[in-house]
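[step 3/7] fold_predict: job queued, chain A
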Amino acid sequence: MRYLIGRYHEVALKGQNRWRFTAQLKRNLIRIMSDYRLGAIRSEGPRLMAELPDELDDLTAIERGSLLFGLQNFTLSRSVAPELKAIESEVLGAVDGTAAKSFAVRTRRENKRFPMNSMEIDREIGAAVKRALGIAVDLENPELTINIELFTDRALVSIGKHPGPGGLPVGVSGRAVAMLSGGIDSPIAAYRMMRRGLALDYVHFHSYPLLSRTSQDKARELAAHLSRYQGRARLFLVPFGMLQREIVARVRRPLRVVLYRRFMMRIAGAIGAQVGAQAIVTGESLGQVASQTLDNMQVIERAAPLAVMRPLVGMDKNEIVEQARRLGTFETSIIPDQDCCTLFVPRHPETHARFDEVEAAEAAFDIQRMVSEAVNNTERIELTFPPQG
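[step 4/7] structure written:
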């Protein structure tokens, strides 16, 4: 029998509420493994244990396990009889063909009645590996770590540990809509809030047919990449160009960007209300662009019907780019496109908008009609992972 054994991250600190977090983590595991039939899934102390089917290969299991928010790390462990010869045979089969130049054996005994202690087991198994492979023992910084857990009825053997993404299980903190621009920042903001347990749907504003479809294509790709962490998500593609034209016709140049952003907040909030969202997530970073000065962010937020979360607000661009590279979204985000933020943008946008002035400018608009039209014309795309069919 083969198991995915995950060690909890923050979940381990939740005390009497831990059951709620572990239950959500189990649901998330089932969802991202939905194309395979898992065996029993249970929580044992600070760990999650899931029986894996034979048809699920190790590489796929590792890829899927790395998507589970709530796990600090995990192993793929095989169960054998709690006997030294059976353990040795499993270990030698698992390390056969390794390219590692050094190794260490780590044994943990739950069964204290076993005739050998942990150090003795380490030495015996280590000697067998050294005879078979001829590689060095390195207890400080081994290239290969062999893990053995000894119970009364079985022993679990695994090679190495795989990092999990940490944080809290997606869904345990509620639901939000994330504004997904297609740039570098917004996917990282979404990732960071999923890591805090928020389940997300995505809202992308585009100006097709005034501009090309490239930004929509990028948004689809980025949303699909992010949806792997929660299994299911929705992407809302909002046509924004005609609304921008209305603003351009009636508002002086410097205030246009602030009004664009306020309408985006209203529309995202209306879509969020339809899907039960409690907040709007943005990729804003303080001072990064004209609309993200403190004055402008305050004025823009006042139009939002839901709470606004800005997980990148204190990060600089280099930090965000580094995270985008690690997440695997950077190359998609830097594909040149024409998004709605580049349409009708004044050369010198207002950086310190006053609320009374913005409110007076918006008095010329039928705000409810404009928001309703944008929402009604929005395209909704269902995203699933693993892909269906």
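[step 5/7] annotate
The longest strand covers residues 71-80.
The chain has two domains: 2-163, 174-384.
exit 0
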